[in-house]
Design goal:
The longest helix has 33 residues, at 2-34. This protein folds into two domains: 1-39; 40-111. It is flat and about 60 Å long. The chain has three helices and no strands. With 111 residues, the protein is mostly helical.
Length: 111
């Protein structure tokens, strides 16, 4: 019973967060259109690139942690490895996306 309740509350919270973020994004774009601003497509592409780098980093971290899961370590050690590799590689993906953003947003020098 507790598992069903926890799962449904978790699903509801995730749905609520996605709805709030979508609504906020929609209102910002609507206000920009009303004020005559053009949407910046490169910004959207760069945001998706950043999210992709983070997701790939988390995936690589889970892949590395699954290697250590097969070693027969203590359950506490396995959990520690799962979380630490996931967070470290996810953070590495965020650093890569930050460096890419800095590189793509550099103004071109006119020499």
């Amino acid at each position: 019973m507790e598992d069903v309740l926890f799962g449904s509350v978790l699903f509801g919270l995730i749905t609520l967060v996605v709805f709030i973020l979508s609504r906020y994004n929609y209102l910002i774009k609507k206000t920009a259109y009303e004020n005559g601003l053009k949407p910046n497509e490169s910004y959207f592409k760069l945001r998706m690139f950043e999210a992709g780098c983070t997701i790939v980093g988390v995936g690589i971290g889970l892949g590395f942690s699954s290697i250590f899961m097969e070693m027969g370590l203590l359950p506490v050690t396995e959990e520690l490895l799962i979380y630490s590799f996931t967070l470290c590689f996810g953070g590495a993906g965020m650093i890569v996306s930050h460096l890419a953003r800095k590189r793509f947003n550099e103004p071109e020098s006119s020499e």
